[in-house]
Amino acid sequence: MHAEAREFFPHIFLFLILGGVRSALETVLVPIASFVNQITRSIPATLNDSALEKLKKENSQLLTQLAEKKNLETEVVALRDQFQTPYPKSTDLLPAKIIASPSFLPGVSEPSHFILNRGLKDKVKVGQAVVYKNNLVGKIVSVSQNLSDVALATSLDISLTVRTVSANNSSALGVVRGTGGEMVIENVLLSEKISPSDLVVTKGDLNAGGVGLPEDLIAGKIVAVEKKPSALFQTAKVKSLLDFQKLTVVFLLM
Known about the structure:
It is a single chain. It contains four helices and 14 strands. The protein is α+β, with helices and mostly antiparallel strands. α2 runs antiparallel to α3.
């Protein structure tokens, strides 16, 4: 603020006083004028460029710290929830961050693959199951030294042997394949009883080295059944219990 402006407020008050407004007004206004004058003199005329840059840098650092804190809180919640899940055992799991989702466009397409920050250096192998709690996320389809690619259970690249679990303990075998957004269970005999709300879990598909999908991971829930009397098999739409778009941390079954 310029020097003329700093002196402006006291002059107004003196003008009022000289104009005849005295007595009580003088007692009140003169101290106020003095206070305003002190305040205006203490304000720097302008903030120089270096001060502005410093403020911008500090603001940027605070925003970065806030984002990191939020991410850390999300990871802590995921770890806590996973380790409180009885199956799979937490000792068999390796946490991994999702660092990319190729070809995913919010509002346009669904995620089909995740890139994780774990690779050969972490002993990740092709075929390993990826889970969140006791839900199947997908399986590893390729690995580099530092990264791995997960094909989600809803991906067109995935098919797996499953069984249904109903409220009345009935069960039917079938094959689930991804459709690019949901899943469909096929090859279920027409004589088998399946219904909406039945869970679909993995039947188990491990190789001689123990790598693959263990049994009883939840692939999803049946949401609609298509049954034609003239067909040999019935089919059903299956929806994952997970919202893949909201996942930030997953777990590899080692």
